[in-house]
Amino acid sequence: FSKRMGPNMFSYYQASMNTPTLKRMTIENHLHRAFDGNEFELYYQPQFDLITGTPTGVEALLRWHNRELGEVPPMEFIPMAEDSGMIVAIGEWVMRTACRQAQTWLDRGLPLGRIAINVSSKQFIHPGFVEMMKRILLEIKLPPGLLEIEILEELIRGGAREIIETLNALKQMNIRIAVDDFGSGYSSLACLEETDIDCLKIDSVFVGGISGGKVGRSVVSGIIAMAEEMDMRVIAEGVETKEQAAFLRKKQCQEVQGYLFSRPMSTPQVETFLLNNLGFKSVANSGLDHKL
Ligand code: C2E
Ligand code: MG
Ligand code: MG
Ligand code: MG
Questions:
Q1: Which residues surround ligand 3, an ion (CB under 5 A)?
Q2: Which end of the chain is more exposed for a tag (fewer CB within 10 A), N or C?
Q3: Rounded (5°) CA angle 201-139-174
Q4: CA 171, CA 240: separation in Å to the nearest integer?
Q5: pTM to 2 decimals?
Q6: Where does the UniProt annotation place the signal sequence (predicted)?
């Protein structure tokens, strides 16, 4: 089971779906019709500057509501969408929807520092990926500097030429790159030299390890020090406790994301959140300090 699934995520299990294969086939069948039924929605989770408490941006997170299956968590259906190739269409929908949303927020004057969008490795290596990004940016005219795509460490691990080239093409378009779930493979570091990564997101497993002991803490402080050395931003994700936040602050981690600060929210919820935080520095500070 995935590390991020809570117990309530299994509500869509049905008595009839008692074998993994059957369950998978059922989900896949529904997934093929999810677009027609308008079943996808993006949620947004704010990220914060750990010193000032200011939101620095939001990460778009895909939600799938299906009448029969209920809420299917992305850790369940994204791998299936990758296997079937549907991830290309789903990924394009996510990219277009998130960029449109960001543009709408900018037009309405909501403070939005950045929008981060997850890109699956399968989607990234698809030959049309860069063209798709160009098309969307041309169509929506979102300043590309606002856009940060989150890729996985596995993608850059081997240092494949094509991948470095695609990353560099995106950098030329002024899109930012973050490495998501960073920490399990320091081996991918060599590739970081060859392209211009903007941000490392420390995997929530390691953030959770802060409370565990010296080993967990040294992995986290190691990543923070390395990011600093290499001029990259660093975001700790999955921050759930005050103790973790205090440790991250002590180690001068720049940004945080996690349930301690805010859960992923629907569009209207995140709008209210961002609006209420307009020009809010001192308020945010006190709020955050209170929480810490
Ligand atoms: P991720 O990109 O690493 O996203 C962070 C996940 O951690 C999200 O789960 C988020 O809701 C959850 N999270 C945030 N703060 C906390 C916390 O304090 N505690 C805990 N326990 N969890 C926290 P979510 O939304 O279920 O997404 C899971 C994964 O599915 C994402 O991990 C990402 O890999 C993938 N995913 C989600 N949306 C998309 C998408 O639009 N495209 C692609 N390709 N993948 C996506
Ligand atoms: Mg992510
Ligand atoms: Mg992550
Ligand atoms: Mg992940």
A1: 180-181
A2: N
A3: 40
A4: 32
A5: 0.90
A6: none
